[in-house]
TrEMBL record:
InterPro entries from the UniProt entry: MetI-like (IPR000515), MetI-like_sf (IPR035906), Sugar_ABC_transporter (IPR052730)
Localization, UniProt: Cell membrane; Membrane
Keyword Signal carried by entry: no
Record keyword Transport present: yes
Family indicated by similarity: Belongs to the binding-protein-dependent transport system permease family.
Membrane topology value: Multi-pass membrane protein
CDD domains, per the entry: TM_PBP2
Protein's name according to its UniProt entry: Multiple sugar transport system permease protein
């Protein structure tokens, strides 16, 4: 009797497992390759104009006569001379007036737009007959181009226009002074309040109906529901909408330009001032105004985000859903007592 033993098959050699540290550089390189077109576009449309404007702001246009009596035009390097001229030169008064107008229009219009926009959102969020028509009617002003709305309100505010007929007055709205500022504020609020209303309405759509039902069982009236549920839960969307409107209003140009006109001290903003300088071929000072406006907008945005904590990274929906669950649990607990 013979016995045979067979050796177990040899195990196939396994390829060495790639370590996580080895994959990281390759994945990082692929991510950089895929994102490179975006970076190139950003450099071309943002960084190059920005650096070009900063470089141009260091020069000043000059003209004179050469030794032969011919007119010679060119630019000379002045360093920060344009900035010193803006802040402490002969035209500094015009700059500070434009800075005040920009700030005044921004905070007044955004405050009014926030109140009216939230009211629009509450009205559009309710279920009633004709809600679709109301939503479309409210959003029409926002869809109209700014230049067209400026011409429309110029026709309304002219001396023999509808505004004076309704008020039975003869106010020169499109001339100068406080009346011109009121005309710009009215037209700006009319046009952009639906924008805030639209974003706030999107935030209100995320609030579960169970939260309001729990609040009703707890005896909360409509005003208390608005203060305790609606307003806290739409806060992330509202802050983002206000931030967008702040940045847009600080660049206000076309509406006062079309409605009132250029070189009107009561409505002249920093953007109009920069345009006026470039229109006179003073590209150095125009670039300096643009750089100052850019820094001013960046400072306002930074302060707004740091103080109020506006959500600009897109996790507002998650935060709203989390807060909604907390509110529902709170009201359910109070109702069960």
């Amino acid at each position: 009797m013979t016995s045979s033993t067979t050796a177990p098959p040899a195990a196939k050699p396994q390829p060495p497992r790639r370590r996580k540290e080895d994959r990281a550089p390759r994945e990082g390189g692929m991510a950089a390759l895929l994102l490179s077109p975006t970076f190139i576009v950003l450099v071309l449309v943002i960084m190059y104009p920005l650096l070009s404007a900063l470089y141009q702001s260091l020069f000043s246009a000059e003209s004179g006569l050469d030794a032969n009596g011919f007119v010679v035009e060119g630019e000379s390097f002045v360093g920060i001379g344009n900035y010193l001229e803006i802040f402490a030169g002969g035209e500094s008064g015009r700059f500070y007036n434009a800075l005040w107008n920009t700030t005044f229009f921004t905070f007044v219009t955004v405050a009014l737009e926030t109140v009216i926009g939230v009211s629009f959102a509450v009205a559009m969020n309710r279920a009633f007959k004709g809600r679709a028509f109301l939503r479309a009617a409210i959003l029409i002003p926002w869809a109209i181009p700014t230049a067209v709305s400026g011409l429309l309100w110029r026709w309304i505010f002219q001396s023999n226009g509808i505004a004076n007929d309704l008020l039975n007055t003869q106010i020169l709205w499109t001339a100068e002074g406080f009346a011109a500022q009121v005309a710009v504020i009215v037209a700006e609020v009319w046009k952009t309040a639906p924008f805030i209303g639209l974003l706030v309405l999107a935030g209100m759509q995320l609030i579960p109906e169970e939260v309001y039902e729990a609040a009703k069982l707890d005896g909360a009236n409509a005003w208390k529901q608005f203060l305790s549920i609606t307003l806290p839960l739409v806060r992330p969307a509202l802050l983002v909408a206000v931030l967008f409107r702040l940045l847009d209003s600080l660049r206000m140009f076309d509406l006062p330009f079309v409605l009132i006109g250029p070189r009107k001290s009561s409505v002249e903003t920093l953007s109009i001032l920069a345009w006026d300088q470039s229109n006179q071929l003073q590209y150095g000072s125009a670039s300096a105004f643009a750089i100052i406006l850019l820094v001013y907008v960046a400072v306002i945005a930074f302060v707004f985000i740091r103080i109020l904590g506006a959500d600009v990274v897109g996790d507002a929906d998650k935060q709203a859903a989390k807060q909604a669950k907390k509110q529902a649990a709170k009201f359910a607990k109070e109702a069960g007592r």
